[in-house]
Amino acid sequence: MTYRFTDPDGDALHIEPTRRHGRPAISLRNLRVDIEGTSVAVHVPVDQVEELIAGIRDTARQAAAPPAGPVTAAGLPVDGDVNPRSMATVQDVAEDPR
User: Do residues 4 and 32 share a domain?
Assistant: First the structure.
């Protein structure tokens, strides 16, 4: 049996039973629609599936949490927003009198 999850962009995640190094596992395969034939698989031993699910739940909670501090118009945290030319923070660049 294969489980398939498709995101709004049409990219799909296929989950199917497999064996890896002689042990039962599940294969998580990403199938992208924008690059024909591109596929990457991760094999998770069945005794580590609950750990994977717990990690997914933790990550989902973090994604759903409101930002801890001020954000830019793009929704990015103000702290850590980096100017790639100087590697200074945007706040530092704005305060520079030059």
Answer: yes
Scan for tokens 């699910």, then name that residue. Answer: 53
Burial class (CB in 10 A: 0-12, 13-18, 19+), 25: buried
What's the token pair of residue 53? 């699910």
Quote the domain boundaries for residue 19: 1-65
Residue 39: which H helix or E strand, with range?
strand 39-45
Residue 85 binned pLDDT confidence (cut-offs 50, 70, 90): very low
CB proximity list for 91: less than 8 A, separation 6 or greater? 78, 81
Segment 15-49, tens digit of pLDDT? 999 999 999 999 999 877 667 766 789 999 999 99
Euclidean distance between CA atoms 61 and 16, whole angstroms = 26
Asked if residue 58 and residue 75 are part of one domain, the reply reads no
Q: Are residues 61 and 80 in the same domain?
A: no
Q: What is the CATH number of the domain that holds 30?
A: 3.10.450
